[in-house]
Amino acid sequence: MRLKHCHNTRDFRELARRRLPSPIFHYIDGAADDETTRRRNTEAYSNCDLVPNVLRGAEHVDLSTRVMGLDLDIPLFLSPTALQCLFHHEGEMAVGKAAEQFGTLFGLSSLGTTSIEEIASTIKTPKLFQLYVHKDKGLTRNMIDRCKAANFDAMALTVDTAVGGNRERDLVTGFTIPPKLTLKSLLSFTCHPAWGLNYLSHGGFELPQLQDHVGEGTSITLSIGSYINTMLDQSMDWQAAEEIVRYWGKPLVLKGIMSVEDARRAVDIGAAAIMISNHGGRQLDGSRSPFDQLAEIVDAVGDRIDVICDGGIQRGTHVLKALSMGARACSGGRLYLYALAAAGRAGVEKALGNLCSEMERDMKLMGCKSISELNRSNLRFRPEFACHSQ
Fold first, then answer.
1. Do 286 and 37 touch, CB atoms closer than 8 A?
2. Domain membership of residue 361 as a residue range
3. Contact 319, 201 (CB under 8 A)
4. What is the pLDDT of residues 24-56, one digit of tens each?
5. How many Å from the N-terminal Cα to the C-terminal Cα in the chain?
6. Could you give the C-alpha distances from 9 to 12, 80, 86, 149, in angstroms and in order?
7. What would the mean pLDDT of 104-110 be, rounded to a whole number?
8. What CATH number did the domain enclosing 51 receive?
9. How many distinct structural domains can be found in the chain?
């Protein structure tokens, strides 16, 4: 399979599977426990049907939206994800440049493999930094201060990692940061020499947001679950979140909100937006999908805060369904990580191009000239799922 044959997320996933050593592919692809929630995140969109209108003169389509005061050309952005240079040596720079080309938001993770400063000096599209609150308060404040100095546009405070999820695929493959060879993984790394040569020839592994503060994840091998359990502040509460909102002083989105109660608390502490997200099914297996929770959260707070639907998106129609339900925008990780692993920047640009073509075509087929024309009258739920439309 070649890049030109990648027409959808499934195709990029297959190409990534062929090009990555098994532990690294399964880190992207896997989730918690039985991975029920991971599957449900996408399946939820199939329980909802679109109802198109015709003869609306939809020759030209406007996909732009405004989120957290930021103007985006498309209603889909690239969620911050960790360790991107492990998947392809171009890493965050490839993803950021692709986001820039499509005029959308780019997210950089606390566990990113490119520095805040390098992204700020190179990527001109709106930028969001995803903050993990560490036990080391000096480290947490340092990351915020660096984002202030680098003039990042927004911050995402991840709130669903009180402990690490039970990611059993990582336990089976022995995936760690940085990666290490084991008897289980040796054959897979050996069978993917191109990945190994690129990884070694481009400097290996660094976590520049952390390396001046902690050894874990830079020189000490840990699983992701162990990193979360060891390094992150499990005592973080709403008061701490409110203090971060005030200290940051720019738009802040809480990433990992899944209940109406928490959405209302987000409004109360001054957050600019919430990302309805279950961490791609990587934390609490058996939790609801973001799309299933979207209606009740939008109804509760959608007039006071921007609501973003994060996770499970594989098609342009998924985005249109979420927007019709009331989301301001959508975001995702695996939808571009597979593409990054498959072909670097060219892969991410093709993945975004595919999704943009789908969104534009599907908007025309829906009879909508702008996303403001999408609403719940466009949707019908199958009888067993009708409660979602209430």
1. yes
2. 3-389
3. no
4. 999 999 999 999 999 999 999 999 999 999 999
5. 44
6. 5, 18, 20, 36
7. 97
8. 3.20.20.70
9. 1
- Token output for 179: 């990666």
Prediction pTM value: 0.94
* Helices and strands in the chain: count of H runs, count of E runs: 16, 12
Contacts of 280 (CB under 8 A, 6+ apart): 31, 38, 41, 311, 312, 333, 334
Residue type, 80: P
Cα–Cα distance between 390 and 209 in angstroms, integer?
44
Average pLDDT along the chain = 92
What is the torsional sign of CA 183, 189, 191, 193?
negative
Chain segment 286-301, per-residue pLDDT in tens: 999 999 999 999 999 9
Alpha carbon distance 28, 104 (integer Å) = 22
Residues 6 or more apart in contact with residue 183 via CB below 8 angstroms: none
Q: Are strands 48-50 and 379-381 parallel, antiparallel or unpaired?
A: antiparallel
Question: Taking the CB of residue 44, how many other CB atoms lie within 10 A of it?
Answer: 22
Beta bridge partners of 331: 77, 310
Q: Give the angle 34-290-333 at the CA atoms, nearest 5°.
A: 75
Backbone angles phi, psi at 156, to 5 degrees: -110, 120
- Reduced to 3 DSSP states, what percent helix, strand and coil does the chain have, rounded to the nearest 5? 50, 15, 40
Q: Answer for the pair 170, 228: CB distance below 8 angstroms, yes or no.
A: no
What phi, psi does 219 have (nearest 5°)? -115, -10
Positions annotated as catalytic residues are: 279
The predicted structure's pLDDT at residue 227: 87
Asked whether 56 and 368 are in contact (CB, 8 A), the reply is yes
